[in-house]
Amino acid sequence: MAVNRTLVICKPDAVERGQVGEIIGRFERKGLQLVAAELRTLGPDVLALHYAEHVGKDFYDDLVAFMGRGPVLVAVVEGPHDTWSVVRQMLGATDPMKAAPGTIRGDLGTEVTENLVHGSDSAESARREVAIFFPGLQ
């Protein structure tokens, strides 16, 4: 996979609140291209792979329950070098109350525990995460 692809997950709260189109639209308006996307309900095995660094932490069970409670949109976006960084900047701070206006979380988020969207936090994470959710994507 090229370094210019990254994983985005519109979390269950984004799907429930009807914000998926707005979120994906922001990436497209920025000039990023949607390469793959699928609406899925994530099970505990996939979530354990995705959140491997958090297994055993006190918030892990709540995180898995939240992420598995309903459908998510799992997507791969492509753009210029370090697309993962562009996406992270667009997401804003994890806590929507601290996220800058103009960011996805700053404009649309309401809770730190349900903050609408995930984006890979490095090129290495992007490669690993895309392989988990879209193993056939080159």
Task: List its traits.
single chain; 138 residues; alpha+beta; Alpha-Beta Plaits; four-stranded antiparallel beta sheet
Your description of this structure?
The chain has 138 residues and is an alpha+beta fold. It has one domain: Alpha-Beta Plaits (2-Layer Sandwich), CATH 3.30.70.141. Helix content is 41%, strand content 17%. The protein contains 7 helices and 4 strands. It has helices at residues 12-16, 20-30, 44-50, 60-67, 83-91, 104-108, 123-133; strands at 5-10, 33-40, 72-78, 117-119. The protein has a 4-stranded antiparallel β-sheet. The longest helix is centred in the first third of the chain and has 11 residues, at 20-30.
Task: Work out the radius of gyration.
Answer: 14 Å
Strand order of the largest sheet: 2-3-1-4
| H/E series | EHHEHHEHHEH
Indicate the CATH topology.
Answer: Alpha-Beta Plaits
Mean pLDDT: 95
Strand content: 15-25%
In the predicted model, the low-confidence regions spanning at least 5 consecutive residues are none
Tally of DSSP β-strands: 4
* Share of helix, binned: 40-55%
Briefly note the structural class of the backbone: alpha+beta
> Tally the helices: what do you get?
7
As for the number of domains, it is 1
Q: Examine the secondary-structure arrangement and name the CATH architecture.
A: 2-Layer Sandwich
